## 1
Amino acid sequence: MNAQNSPIFDPLHNDSFLRACMRQATDHTPLWLMRQAGRYLPEYCATRAKAGSFMGLATNRDYATEVTLQPLERYPLDAAILFSDILTVPDAMGLGLSFAQGEGPRFATPVRDEAAVAKLEVPDMAKLQYVFDAVSSIRKALTVDGKGRVPLIGFSGSPWTLACYMVEGAGSDDYRLVKTMLYSRPDLMHRILAVNADSVAAYLNAQIDAGAQAVMVFDSWGGVLADGAFQSFSLAYTARVLAQLKRTGAQGQTIPRIVFTKGGGLWLQEMAALDCDVLGLDWTVNLGRARALIGGSENGPGKALQGNIDPNVLFAPPAHIAAEVARVLDSFGTPYQGTGTGPTHIFNLGHGISQYTPPEHVAALVEAVQTHSRQLRT
């Protein structure tokens, strides 16, 4: 799909998330949750059972649309995020992605030697058409009374995070195989990362053409790298993705770009130089310090910040959840309230929501964010 035949969509009822991404004032701190459509919701589990498998769910436009909207039916969230997986791109490269029940992702043909690396190339985006069809379907399903309910976020794994899975063949506790390649054959690692970066850029641009209103790069495993290696093998290739991304959608609207590096707090100042609009933070980072470092000032350059409550707070009683929400919001301080641009905050978890989270505790979190963030603005 290209910009010439991209679907034309309606304006938004609630654009607070997009406004905050662009460092513009909002009447409350917008909120969405990483993995907000997932196994903690019984309705998601029922849909997955109908689909028969995770990939059956992710590759079916109607099922992907259904589960993307499920958390919005329960909670007054300010954004939807495409239901998919970060590993769709290497799957399209022919590595054979599968998900066993109760286990994480696995590749049938990991990339572990020179011959396998040499075969890698940017996949034909037609192999990922099911993702782009889901994006367009979700946008249509979000339309109510001629307007979109909330914006839709598209996403991909970062080049480094994809490489971890591609070399290890699955999730890893020690990243031994991928780090062995990084240190012993950095030339091979750089080749993988270059192909991944160009693939991710093409993938996100196709999501934008299909209707994604913001895009996010998940550098889930950037924080496992040593200082120095992070800059060379993660940050540089995230920058390569961002340099290729479309800045506007089919109707000329700005498409915010978000980067989240789990464990990346050490490198915030260097990530501030990335050509993106929003930096996501995990729970180890103090929002106030991050605001002072990279949030910018009124009508000057800076990044919006996203995050960063510990997902395990959601196992505490609702009163404790509310107290932690207030602590996180207070640590950022009062967001910008003028007519130009200034420091803004998007509330989120510091990583994905746990499958064991009680759904009613998410409701308590959402209510606390809305209530306390409005009080901050009075």
Note: DSSP finds 15 helices and eleven strands in the chain.
## 2
Amino acid sequence: MIPAQTIRSLISPDSFGIEIRPGHKPVAAKADGFSCLVLDDRSRERICEETRRESPDRPDLAKRVETVDLLGRPAEILTLFQSFGGVPGTLSYIISAHNIEHIPDPVRFLSECQSLLAPGGSLFLTMPDRRACFDYFRPASTTADLIAAYLEKRTRPTWTQIFEHRSMACRLESEGRELTSFPLGTPPEALTPRRELLECFTEWKRQTESPDEVVRDAHCHTFSPASLRLVIEDLRFLGLVGLEIGEICQAGEGDNEVYARLDAPLAPSAPLSPEIFYERRHALLSRLRREDESFFR
């Protein structure tokens, strides 16, 4: 299942939406007739420059980069849209590919996306499956991780997250290339962990003693299909997220991504009874355990 193809089949060029950091691969491109705003924390010129630098043999890619309408961080989506003159509750869709794992406070992001969506509108998320990228050796993020970020009102990665992101990273060496994303099912013996534990610790210690104001990028959170479903269901039960799960599944050409469609409810729904919720939660916890056990068997 290819997320971009699925998303395009579910949205109409006549509907109004936002696509977050599409780079040179927009799903709902203006050039294709979609009425879609682009949100990015980089200017179009910078994106084009980065694209040319990363793919010097593909000068055509920079031509696909579209005008940035909302200049700012994805975590500021509500403020950016309102500053643009947009009215909350009017969007048909929001597309966010490989962004939510970078966002320090996903609960706030999900809540703001819901406030922007019209009833029945959809938030489309794509993210790397932690079992098929450089996060391979990291554990899945838990509900507690996301709640801590929400209660602390985080606006940047913590040094705990930066340290884990860097010190646990790995790659797949294949045909003279170092791949940071690889097919699901790649055995751990085939991967090469980075040997930078001391360097990561030294930098963390230095920042503790003399912090600077530089905002560093990191995968703040890691997911698999089962872990994402568990977290969303927990957050819904706790009243922190109101979006409904439309679909969460394995995706990508090598099954190395997680795809999710979260829908803004058409009308308020009655909450699950605790008994039903905890039965479902038990099933999800079991599914998460089986997911890991079958993968690492």
Note: The longest strand covers residues 117-128.
## 3
Amino acid sequence: MDTEVQIKSKIISCGCDLLNTGLVVGTWGNLSARIPNTSFIAVTPSGRNYRTLSVDDIVIVDLDGNVMTGHLKPSSELAVHLEVYRNRPDVGAVIHTHSVFASACAVARHFIPPIVEDVVQAVGGGIEVAEYAMSGTKELAQNAVLALGTKNAVLLANHGVVCCGCNLEEAMTISGLVEKAAQIFIYANQITGAKTLSSNDVDLMRDFYLEDYRKRQGGMDNGKNFIKKC
């Protein structure tokens, strides 16, 4: 089980990976993770480059957004992160990106249907679009959680993507998978159109992921006990 310092270090490492893979640019995007065996969240500070962060720059907040430790202001999208954690006890990490193809779908306000097997397994189906609201607002947070439901990714209209997982590793994987799905969806529609998987196939693949594949990836057991399992 990771310590608070290890969680902070992973957040910084994941932030740099987001830059390296082009899922974010500059200081945009944000990451957070639960601190095991506490009710606290570690979150990136607002407006800081991931490459220059130290573990002391990562802010610790409670589920009401009160800063417990840290000298910097937490991410401007903290409300979205906290709303996810309050409504999804199975979630151990949240990542918000502005990746190009997924953001294109968000700007078009177009749902990404369940078309790619690995994405369906990890996300739990197609990727919905949350109703538009201004960045940083409670309304945006509520819209995001409503559209997210029990899945692991949601598009924010005219904004970007929120992905979550049992831990940072899974949330990072899902961030990449969502971008891949968006790219495939856009390209497929330039050929003959993307063909969706059946709801039965989606359910079977999701069950396989939760019951088998995720465990082999070091994830949690059925999405219920991430603190003990991740």
Note: The CA atoms of residues 77 and 136 lie 5 Å apart.
## 4
Amino acid sequence: MTLPPDPALARLKARVADIPLGAKAEEIGTVLAIGDGLATVAGLPGARLNEILEFPGGTLGFVLSLEEEVLHAAFLDPVIGVGAGDRVIRRDALLSVPVGEALLGRVVDPLGRPLDGLPAPDAAERLPTERPAPSIIERDFVSEPVETGLLVVDALFAVGRGQRELIIGERQTGKTAIAVDAIINQAGSDLVCIYVAIGQRMTAVRRVIEAIHGRGASGLTIVVMAEATAEPGLRWLAPFAATSMAEWFRDRGRHALIVYDDLTKHAATHRELALLSGQPPGREAFPGDIFYLHARLLERSAKLSAARGGGSLTALPIAEIEAGNLSAYIPTNLISISDGQIVTSATLFAANQRPAVDIGLSVSRVGGKAQWGAVKSQAGRLRLDYAQYLEMKMFARFGGFGDAAMKARMARGERIGALLAQDRFAPLATVTQIALLLALNEGHLDEVPPDRIPALKSVLPDILAAEPVLDTLRARPEKLDDAERSALLAAVRTALDRP
């Protein structure tokens, strides 16, 4: 009697046949000491920088620095049950992260592990966290704008696709709000957004996630989170891992925007790990490689040439300063690496001018090269006129101006300030911005009380949406013709006539 074949036995035989036979060499190290998220390990002569190590209990770490006899490994998981004398195994793999479309709309940690309660992203491809920046020959000129929806940014300090624009200011002056508004304004666009929380409080990150998800921008957004209570290794890794996720889109001819919130805390984490590993401290106790750390990170943001697909990665790094000191070590490093900075002012924030952007200290080194032509033509004198108004306003406290021309400048400055003020989560479309700037330049706002301008900005978009003659301007606002100019001014007059 012949027995039927057993499927379980057949599967077992197949598994046994796939097992490679023979000797296998394995390096095993020993933990010498552990302190504050960093381990000193001996006995792994073949280990490489950024190589993954496995500690007892499956705890993961990576090689942060190498010395002649020992190496220093930063933990990626909570240190539980690991102590001196334990063995360490090389994974023979460098740090990498999952990338691809599956990450869109998700909240993950720097290793791609889900933090939103959903299953792990089904990403078939992985990229190293440390990747070389594009070479000069692989780059192209920054010429396309990133529309942030903030009039003060789009009109005065235009950000281009492939640019690195630093957002810097004191604590609680609206730095994150500017970046989040820029992300929210991309709802419905082709720009993929990545928000990286480095050492932030969980409550602050939750508010950002709720703002993004509640306003329809989550479909093309990835949130990478390494909160303040995370292991130092995760906080150190977060910006590099998120950049690799963004580069996957850039390398496929798409456009991405990444927000690092913030690099000041990232520098503090690097200083913490460097001092624990025995590196000599330099200025403000930071190690000597702190400039290279952020330079190699931000240089990965670029506009690629047509031969490389024409994609772009735009960076909005955030940095925090104390007491308005822009000359501190980390701020000056970041300013020298980036292509401009948007400086927020505690004085303006306290005066309820939001966004609290200091137009005197802010600059974009790409500027008009990445600005729509129609916006550029209308915003030509805006910065100079507003700067003159602010200066005259300061001296006006000592006495009034009797000159009619001076009074007219003051009145115009008040209306510019009202135009530049903008509520959170209320982005303005480019056509709306052009209409407002055109109305200002043509004198249509000279008699409008400044307190009426917020109402004008709220009703104007609906009126403009009903104008078919503006369809070309909406698609590509490079130039204003006479018909479009007339339609924009008529829409502003209609909005002003409404009660």
Note: The first strand starts at residue 28 and ends at 35.
